[in-house]
Amino acid sequence: MRVGLAYNVKPADLPEHLPEDAFEEYDSEATVGHICDALLRLGHDVRRLPAGARFLDAVRESPLDIVFNIAEGEGGRCREAHVPAVLEMLGVPYVGSDPLTLAVTLDKPVAKKLAAHEGFPTPAFRTYRSADGFTEWPLAFPVIVKPVFEGSSKGVRLSSRASDFEQAREMVRFVTETYRQEALVEAFVPGAEVTVGILGNDPPRVAGMMEIVPKTVDPSEFVYSLEVKRDWENRVSYRVPPALPGPVLSRIERNALGIYRALGCRDFSRIDFRIDREGTPQFIECNPLPGLSPGYGDLPIMAERMGIPYLSLIEEILSHALARLGMAPA
Predict the structure, then answer these.
(1) Residues near 184 by Cβ (< 8 Å), separated by ≥ 6?
(2) 121-132 pLDDT tens trace
(3) Strands 183-187 and 143-147
């Protein structure tokens, strides 16, 4: 098949006016190369399609059977919806979730409200436009403070876990002034952090569950922050499957599949939870564009440890999309 690969890559230089993690969501050239190599090994003709202003022209100039979309987009809370929206406008089939799901899941408060409406527990939260507007927090501390519409731990630092009002207020100031968006202030869940990889559509299946285990701090204080992700080999270990009681694992799986369906995810996604003191999985966020870097991305790591080699993972993701589109069996 003629497969286009839509992506954003990290630029070589970071403009001085942007925060250090401004392009944290974007892939490396190495990751793009790994995916291209996998698709080539599967027998496909691959065309690279950098996302951005020229993407529309590039797609129109190239006869393609399907686009494998990993593009994060540029600018605003709907940026992840740009590429699939263009592809739908042009009538080009693509891998992954549609524009609505990508926009909804990037906006954490919207995703949390929809999940809660469907009966899935999620930590209590509020949003604030500025530090001046953060005049009270009606619940207990600690809290965690994050940008409203970022991924890959953008805007999340070790200091994002605030144990009192003044610390939380300073983190609200940091988020709103640095990232030019509202801050999400969320009750901090002190238990294990678990991420769930899901593949497929009818029905979807859990490909693996992975516990992120801190090496340097107590789990009750752990934040999967920018600093941790950039130094993960020294700061965390990955446990597949998680060392949690069977009933908790079963509930995580049920909730993950339910949230996947409720948010309209397709083909592949990753869903994150923290486990509270009562053993309840609390929904944190959903990523329908999970990183696919072998040996680094959470989904490829857990798939590998569950006996799914990287080539098979890419093949299965593409196969699910083709089956959904009526182009080939899964």
Answers:
(1) 108, 109, 125, 126, 127, 145, 146, 147, 148
(2) 999 999 999 999
(3) antiparallel
> May I ask the CATH class of domain 2-95?
alpha beta
Residue spans of alpha helices (H) in the chain: 29-41, 55-61, 82-90, 99-106, 108-117, 165-179, 226-230, 232-235, 246-262, 298-305, 310-324
Cα–Cα distance, 110 to 116 (Å, whole number): 10
CB 78 within 8 A of CB 328: no
Nearest residue to 72 (alpha-carbon basis) of 42, 51, 45: 51
Q: What is the residue type of 162?
A: A
Q: What are phi and psi of 66, to 5 degrees?
A: -160, 155
Q: Residue 264's CB: how many other CB atoms inside 10 A?
A: 15
What would the two tokens of residue 134 be? 């953060």
CB 244 within 8 A of CB 192: yes
Query: How many Cβ atoms are within 10 Å of 20's Cβ, its own excluded?
Result: 11
Q: What is the pLDDT of residues 262-281, one digit of tens each?
A: 999 999 999 999 999 999 99
Which among 232, 237, 283 has a CA at the least distance from the CA of 262? Answer: 283
Phi/psi of residue 268, each to 5°?
Answer: -165, 145
- Residue 12, class by beta-carbon neighbours within 10 Å (0-12 exposed, 13-18 middle, 19+ buried)? exposed
pTM of the model: 0.95
**Choices 3.40.50.2000, 3.30.1330.10, 3.40.830.10, 3.30.470.20: CATH for 113-118+190-324:** 3.30.470.20
Q: What is the pLDDT of residues 53-90, one digit of tens each?
A: 899 999 999 899 999 999 999 888 999 999 999 999 99
